Give the backbone structure.
Amino acid sequence: MNKSHFLSRRTFMKTTGLAVSAGLLPLVGPLAAPPNKKWPAGCRDIHLKLAGQPDSWACMKALGAEGTEVNVELNLNCPTLFHPQHKYTLATAEGIQVLKDDLAASGCRITAFMMSNHFDERLEQELESARGLVKAAQQLGINIIRIDVVPRKLDGDQFLPFAIDTCKRLCAIAEGTPVRFGVENHGNITNNPQFLEKLFAGVGSEQLGLTLDCANFYWWGHPVNDLYPIYEKFAPRVVHTHCKNIRYPEDKKNVRRDIGWEYGKYNCPIYEGDLDFKRITQILRKAGYRGDLCVEDESLDKYPENERADIMRKEIAMLKKLA
């Protein structure tokens, strides 16, 4: 046989890895979902107080949440988790142990951490915070960190090369660990599929994935029928989700709208909007997704306070069925 017709194992692995990192092939092996794996369904920690229980863990159970995404500040404090006897922080070994013990005692689960980054304003501080969070995440068995990759100071043309370099540095921090960063499609820049494609290709690392906010692409102005091909394109990259919905008038669903057009008026619970979550979860399942389904409902302020917990329960219950 002509050996030139065959790839060496090293070349094959390198070529396959580049294809995966560019989003051209679905993830396989330890990062791919086993067949029929059930995803945990829950909500962001900011929603937990709706249940009116004395701590975050009792609230999770009261809402039926199987997991929660936890907000982590630059100083590694967790301001939205609550408990009557202590505050939560990941800045110290003692703080990590307190959270670990409370999770074990309650039987609850954190599915992702959430950073709200200002990379172009305080890059070295952000990287140091990420370094500490990756260490804490490993100790707690949490493999996903949602990140913000949005320009706050740089102009658009300057931002892509900066974002690529920053994400390479983040990936180097997590290299050799199971921890992956999930860029959320959030704001004016990362809801542009072309920007996301260039970012993932430029970084070229499996440590960088996508936190798929299903409604943010719709918020950005994409017609509803254009959303599902976008979901399919990036599905192999998805490591985490934010599930919310919008119900636009019929004459606005399938036209290009201004960014953020009437969002506050038309956002709604996930079971009332235009996005077909059954179809979305089918796309994710086909791509081998192995993360969570996490409610982020920004419409709740429209409803009386005594109705909000029931809306959240209904949303989580819907996602459980789809999971």
Strands lie at 41-44, 68-72, 110-115, 144-147, 180-184, 208-213, 238-242, 245-246, 267-268, 293-295. The radius of gyration is 20 Å. The domain at 37-322 is CATH 3.20.20.150 (TIM Barrel). The first strand starts at residue 41 and ends at 44.
